Amino acid sequence: TKTLVIDQTDNPIKRERFAQVTSAPAANFADTLLLISHDMPQTNIASGDALSVNLYWRLVGESISADYTTVVTLNSADGVEYAQWRQQQPGGLATQHWLPGYYLQDRLTLPTAAGLAPGVYTLSVAVYDPASGRTLDVLDAVGNPANAAYILAPIQVQPPDAPFAATAVAQGPPVNRDLGDGLRLVSFNPLPKDVTVGQALDLAWVWQTVTPQADEPALSLLWLGGESRIRVPITPFSGYPLMQWRAGDLYQARTRITVPAELTSGQVTLRVIVGEYSVPLGVLRVSAPERTFTLPTPQFSADVAWANGIRLLGYDLNADGRPTFYWQTAAPLNTSWQRFVHIVNAYSVIVTQSAGVPADASRPTPGWALGEIITDTVAIAVPNDPALRVYVGWFDPVSGQRVLLTTDADFWALPLPAIGD
Prior knowledge:
The protein is mostly beta strands and 421 residues long. It has 1 helix and 30 strands.
């Protein structure tokens, strides 16, 4: 492998390293860009400190005409994004000018926000195409899409030497409301006014322990609307319990909350509760879908169960070959699972696929009512080709982990005699 330019002292491209690379790259992005390797001087930092990372890239094959953006993201353990850094010219050079056979070093210094709560985070990198608005898939060993990003390293964030000032960590206008003995809600960002059931919201807020907490406070959210009164426990700082905070410590959290499926359309008040204390977080207008609990007569009956409680009751094959699935859940779905349909060849290589939130992204699984029938038409056509197979399943978009069926398989194959009948 050659270098892109002549090696110089402050040049991010290095001549000697990777000159004889024979091992597999760290990540293959859509058979277009290869992340050869990466290194990080430090993965254990104090809250508010910067991260440094070196990424080593090259093209898979010949020159490309597209200008891709690399996106490095810092996420919490539950997948909430805390920071994002974009490089429109990785390594200082637009990707359309990269030369085949050469590699490029991208040296990044990534500042983190003041008040980032201690705990373990994940640093990952993705490749984004601004022209199409799509992210390039990370491919597995046989060339199938495996994920949308490549995990670089876990990042351990430690407490700073001294507490942050409230002005340095503010999220929205100041609130400064005490909830119990020595616990204070400092500020929070306003939530959207209009939401739908099952919608995920990231609540950004700042908390402070005015005095140390002898016991771990129990926090919950209360949704109040019409006849509904729904209380949901939350742990904004699961990676660094409030009992461990010092007097005066002040940290931000981004808590992913879900609009409960049980709510009906109308106005709802949301409050945070700690013991006998509460603070209003806003008034929201909730939209709930029209729900159907009667299964239409499907073209093909099915009874396929996944371990998360989702069942496939049947499906149709439309005139254009697109399948329509009829789903139901017997258990509450707290995770926003995504459905996938893979069309694969005899070597299990994906020929085409569709993945996402069911019903054209309109019916996230946390918004499903128990026993409700969800009608889900998929955008890709099922081929009338006996050499191909169609696999259907569910996965967690945060971890990429597939949900097992109750038979322990991680996908269901549409019976071939049904295809094209």
